Amino acid sequence: MAASSLQSLNPTFSQTLASPNTSPSFRSPFLRFNSSFTPKPLSTRSSSSLIARSAAEPQERKTFHGLCYVVGDNIDTDQIIPAEFLTLVPSNPDEYEKLGSYALIGLPASYKDRFVQPGEMKTKYSIIIGGENFGCGSSREHAPVCLGAAGAKAVVAQSYARIFFRNSVATGEVYPLDSEVRVCDECKTGDVATVELREGDSVLINHTTGKEYKLKPIGDAGPVIDAGGIFAYARKAGMIPSAAAA
Amino acid sequence: MASSVISSSPFLCKSAQQKDLGFPKPSQISVHRCQKRAISRKIVSVMAPQRSSSATGSVKTGMTMTEKILAKAAEKSQVVPGDNIWVNVDVLMTHDVCGPGAFGIFKREFGEKAKVWDPEKIVVIPDHYIFTADKRANRNVDIMREHCREQNIKYFYDITDLGDFRANPDYKGVCHVALAQEGHCRPGEVLLGTDSHTCTAGAFGQFATGIGNTDAGFVLGTGKILLKVVPPTMRFILDGEMPSYLQAKDLILQIIGEISVAGATYKTMEFSGTTIESLTMEERMTLCNMVVEAGGKNGVIPPDATTFNYVENRTSVPFEPVYSDGNASFIADYRFDVSKLEPVVAKPHSPDNRALARECKDVKIDRVYIGSCTGGKTEDFMAAAKLFHAAGKQVKVPTFLVPATQKVWMDVYALPVPGAGGKTCAQIFKEAGCDTPTSPSCGACLGGPADTYARLNEPQVCVSTTNRNFPGRMGHKEGQIYLASPYTAAASALTGHVTDPREFLQ
Lengths: 246, 506
Prior knowledge:
The complex is a heterodimer of chains A (about 250) and B (about 500). With about 250 residues, chain A is an alpha/beta fold. Chain A has eight helices and seven strands; from the N terminus they run H-E-H-H-E-H-E-H-E-H-E-E-E-H-H. In chain A, helix 7 packs across helix 8 (about 230-235). Mean pLDDT of chain A is about 75; it is low at about 1-25 and about 35-60. Chains A and B meet through helix 5 and helix 8 of A and strand 3, helix 3, helix 4, helix 6 and strand 9 of B.
């Protein structure tokens, strides 16, 4: 059994582990492999190695309803959260809230409606509508974090930069959804909309214009975000133990 | 699928033989590191990808460099693009901006008393917001000190005396340059960092990419990155003699202009060809540094004697270089005849907004910034100094010089610039009227706290050797940033307009 050898590597670790199954050898005591667990991709791209969902997942619909905030193409991380605010540490609850208040403050003055009103901490917009390459630029996790901290629930964009997409999934802060057409050209800031996440056909419904848009299936990224991010997901799947007692 | 597949072995071209490039001299290779250096010297020209029948199950196809590195790190014999795998991490880097968050997540998820997976594989490099009075920024360096002390982190390039960077023996400066200078970059390895320009290290023939705090927190506890999707590889073959006025920055701006800021999203950018072979390590780093600006997952350059020389002078940790197979599949092939390229800039406000420098000569500028992981290395300053010396004139606009690391700063003051009669960069810069080279850090590349040296606090026009020019990047939202090579930046400083370096170099 691997547990004893692992425990000798790190005496602070006291949980028993299932012995690694097909996993490569490793030193960390924080990983354990459940024979029923198989890794899931963090991308909505389909791949020949997509693995069947585990039985533990809820087959529910998720719905977000609220106002839209529309931006254009190539909204980079400096516009989402300017570098001067990166001194705020997202894992600190007070600073997390502060980050939210600065969400999208880097957008040029041509954006007359601000995402978060000056003096406010939260946004009144739950759905961000973007164009191509949303979230490009830096790997700063502060970007999806500030959007989630501000109160946004989902981003619907034509395409994403990969680090932003991955960080959104890993943190579980916002749902990054892919539209099939340029919804940013057909929606306006302030439109009332609903995003419905379903197994096969997620949709964005713009109640103000009456139009409905198909969204690409959230795919295997969904369960990770649903669980609350990569750690919660890894725990649910038995990959790592619950946070050890201090 | 690429229509022609050519072995991307760096040793294949005739011109490589003429210049005696690339073949590692046996005396330089220690036997105990030599395991996979038996590179085929057969010259392969055009070869169709070998197709095996897939009817009988697993197909053994050739792999690209990136696929091989990831396969090895996942302890698999084979991976293909799209695979989701667990990857062992060789080095995790973090800095003052993301370190506190990453460690915060690590403790929250693994417990307050948790220990990192390997205190010798984590490199903590304060570099972003250092020389500032901003209390939170200073606090973040203190937070990292505490974590490093508690976890016994071997490599923590600390700074305590903010008034004089030279009083800090451990402090290095910009993380990506420090990683290379301190020997943490090695062929064949997996290097992750909480910074998008971690891709710089791909110049060493390794898999290097940026990750967020949460992923980093996970790696801190486990030493693995969860579910890395193996990226397909786009190949960029650059051949031809590098013109004397052209630099790696021009090459990468050319490429990004070609494929756009999302042209390489989820993909690997592999650079090879005779021009690449002729580049120094610092120039290769500049090239790979901006892979992320094209959306790329990582960049790679096949390691050769230049790589081995650099690495072996800085570390004795053994490494195993890998190379793309002759029958590997590439998702795209781009070829450039470098001898025909001209200096370029990226105009506001996107790194893919490419234009010839000479076509921007009417653009009046307010300042020049030479610094950052992209354009603040020793050779970048040498280049700028060389142009200033050749011109023999004074700059017409404030010219800010921000050496990336302590070592670069020392080189600027100590090394003689070739052809300048023994003068150092610092002397030449002074004679040209530039600002005094400042304390090494990321500086104003990303704006930073309000009191950051050379921050764009007004809507001015700046020519910069940095990597991004989105609105507000260097501070002011209406600032106009032209990304350029050190040569172009220096030439522009001399005229007060965006200027092609051929005005002063020929």
